[in-house]
Amino acid sequence: VAPTRMAQQTYKAKKKAAEGGHRLLKKKADALKMKFRDYAKAIAETKSGMSSDASSAFFSLTQAEYAAGNFKQKVAEGSMSARIRIGGSVDNVAGVKLPVFTKYDTGAVADNQSLGLIGGGKKIVAVREKFTILLDKLIRLASLQTSFVTLDEAIKITNRRVNALECVTIPKIENLLKYIERELDELEREDFTRLKLVKKKKEVTQKLEDAAKAERIA
Amino acid sequence: MTTPKPVQGNSDFTTFNIRHGFPEALVRGMRSSFLADSDYNHLIQCETLDDVRLNLTETDYADSIADFNSITPAMLQKAAVEKLVTEFTYLRTQTVQPLSAFMDFITYEYMIENIMLLLKGALSGRDINELLEQCHPLGMFKDSTMRSIPTFENSAKGYSDLYTTVLVDTPVGPYFSKFLQESSVHRGTSSRNVLEEVEIEIIKSSLIKFWLEDFYNFCYSMGGDTGEIMCDILKVRADTNAINITLNSFGTPLNEPGMRTSDRKRLYPAVGYLYPEGTMLLADVSDEEEMGRVLEAFPTYSALWSIHANGSGDKSIDDAFYERDVHKLELAFENQFHFGCFYAYVKLKEQEIRNLVWITECILQQQKDEIDKFVLVFSQNSAWRK
């Protein structure tokens, strides 16, 4: 790197840009961390709620089987049309795109409506309801968890960038700037010393010339 | 000297034992294999499924579960059903007519269910072997017949072919033909489209209805004690079906006014204490209140209905029906020289299997407070014995 004033200006500008970028990235990292904590809390809540929902849903299945006989195979072997579908969309959080799942009702008529016709119909209806609730929670949990994982990745990347700026780029630029300063000072001093020497020599020559001139006149 | 020909005609207490004494003795022996109150108490107190297994080795189920190291509710159910089927086939081979015809009637119910399962599976294109494994073992046909059911194409012509070649040879063929006839008359379309349009459960309900009526006529023609006891039991069964169909149709397309008279009414069996006035009224019922009013005219059913209407927390109407069934079936064992005990044996064993599965599932899912919601069989502590 040539230690010139121009280089010094360039690198000063670079340092300013780096520091500005560093500040922005830190803000982004903080925002992401906050969102991360929120997601973690929501996931913990949903998970704990789900465990009791899941057990009650499966127990209602047991009750329905007691009342209506084994209808699991009838449902599994029959044809099914999806009543609930999941749509994937993207949510923007502090510049990070997070995947989110939303539930869509296709409005298709429920199959197997007359499943418990000769017995246990009410229990089967209860099973349907309980599992729908469970499905809701499951979709939410899935959505939260995928966002969580993506957010985690994004935070890691951002932190890496912040650290890189902090520990690598900016010190490098600062070192460069210091080096240029020193060199410039050094050059100035060199110049200064050279000028002094030249001046001295000039004075000596001038003295000799003056002495020679004075002799000729006398 | 040749032995004289056995006496034909209705067996009463003087002639019953000539032909049916041995099977009845067998059935009564098997009656003692039911789990007793003390067994159930031990089972309820188990903490894990291994405890359950330990306790079961002291009962009649010891052999069935001897091969397993650890049991799950599904495995237990399978083993118990197989035990029942072994006992049933053994009984069946010891019988002569007309008892063998009677026992065959019992199996038709399971055949209907199996056919429905196969048809439904065929519609969705499942693998035949998987389907065969899930068929109820009491209702199996010849292997060839069963394998050919799903191979028919899923089209209108396919169904009518299926019917004319396969189903017509099975014992439940006549029920199918009656169903197709009735539907085509009713809908005015050819019989081919019916199997596609109508929901499988409704077909099954109609077939069960025809089976009940057939069985009832058979028992009635036998006369004597068999006729008396079995007809009573079947009437109760028919009424249970009618009430359940009505109750469970609320909220489904079957409850719409147009469908009620046309489709729902046709599902009510033509036997039973509710027939004909009750079923006429039930056909028009559109919600639970109306149903309560209709059932008030029949004291036993209004008592059951009030259980459903009042306590939907503790007991459901299905539990009430199960209790009543068990009561009636146990009474069938109190009398001798009739066929009712065979039917009662199968049904009560089924209830026992249900109880066992319920208990093991409760233990598995740690739902200890619900564990005693089952119906004891042959118990001195039954509510109706007090």
Automatic annotation (TrEMBL), chain A:
It comes from Fragilariopsis cylindrus CCMP1102. InterPro entries: V_ATPase_D. Keywords: Ion transport, Transport. Belongs to the V-ATPase D subunit family. The keyword Transport applies. It comes from the Eukaryota. One of its GO terms (molecular function) is proton-transporting ATPase activity, rotational mechanism. This is Vacuolar ATP synthase subunit D 1. Pfam families: ATP-synt_D.
From TrEMBL, chain B:
Coiled coil: none annotated. The keyword Transport applies. It comes from the Eukaryota. One of its GO terms (cellular component) is proton-transporting V-type ATPase, V0 domain. Keywords: Hydrogen ion transport, Ion transport, Transport. Pfam families: vATP-synt_AC39. GO terms for molecular function: proton-transporting ATPase activity, rotational mechanism. Subunit of the V0 complex of vacuolar(H+)-ATPase (V-ATPase), a multisubunit enzyme composed of a peripheral complex (V1) that hydrolyzes ATP and a membrane integral complex (V0) that translocates protons. V-ATPase is responsible for acidifying and maintaining the pH of intracellular compartments and in some cell types, is targeted to the plasma membrane, where it is responsible for acidifying the extracellular environment. Belongs to the V-ATPase V0D/AC39 subunit family. V-ATPase is a heteromultimeric enzyme made up of two complexes: the ATP-hydrolytic V1 complex and the proton translocation V0 complex. This is V-type proton ATPase subunit.
